[in-house]
Fold each of these.
Amino acid sequence: MLPQNPTSPQATPRLIVDAMLGRLAKWLRLAGYDTRYWRDGSDTDLIAAAQAEERLIITRDRQLAGRRGVRAVLVMAETLDEQIAEVRGQLSGNPQPFSRCPECNEPLESLSHSEARELVPPYVWHTQSEFHRCPGCGRVYWKGTHWPAVQARLETPTPLSPAAE
Ligand SMILES: [Zn+2]
């Protein structure tokens, strides 16, 4: 059994996600968690980075998660939906969804409707009122067609099916 709550009750933990879980890392950023994605490098370096930056490790590597002194959530689920539910069920805090760039983890900045005019397609500009920009990569985000699906996925924890082992 995994510990039910490896983090303190109120704080929203900062995360470091290991290389096998890239899609999950993007979703955790969408959910609002400060999430570093560990693309390459040794386990030793990953652990050192996690400790230096006080990040909780999210991994599928049982050995890594079981090392002495390592704070980690071991991901057992196979599908992305189940992984999201599994990890969120073990994280404390109440992060603000859609507050971070899913690509580079930077906190998003608000963009006024007039500022967005040159940056988004005309149809989008005419139909949307709220825009955000990533100061890191410059991507502009709005509550477009993906929004309802994203929100549903983030807000409704998918119950883990007993059959999906
Ligand atoms: Zn970005």
Amino acid sequence: MLESVAIGFGASGRNGGQIVNSYSRDMDVIEKQNGAETARALGAMAFEGNQIIRQRIEKYQINCDLKEGNLLPPVIRNSGKA
Ligand SMILES: Cc1cc2nc3c(=O)[nH]c(=O)nc-3n(C[C@H](O)[C@H](O)[C@H](O)COP(=O)(O)OP(=O)(O)OC[C@H]3O[C@@H](n4cnc5c(N)ncnc54)[C@H](O)[C@@H]3O)c2cc1C
């Protein structure tokens, strides 16, 4: 493994722990920038990543307190920001 700082330094070591099936922008923006085919592939990849995480938790018996459900972040009225 190549790491310029310490293992876990990057976003992987700091993220909130939610399995996120999306990107930092809506799919219509991604489609506009990259075309429909690429957007479809990226959309499928997001869901594939979700499945890979679940398979690895099962395969390696990772004790990570996985909980099924949905995350509904609060949004400040009129700001569009979570
Ligand atoms: C605050 C925060 C919260 C997040 N929460 C979530 C969440 O809840 N759920 C979710 O799905 N996603 C979340 N994300 C996004 C997710 O964490 C990242 O998309 C993911 O960790 C990226 O993984 P990565 O391995 O590509 O990069 P990173 O985890 O960032 O790893 C890249 C590593 O490469 C190292 N590096 C960089 N350049 C070099 C170099 N030249 N030589 C050697 N090493 C180098 C960096 O130091 C870093 O440690 C969050 C991100 C942030 C910042």
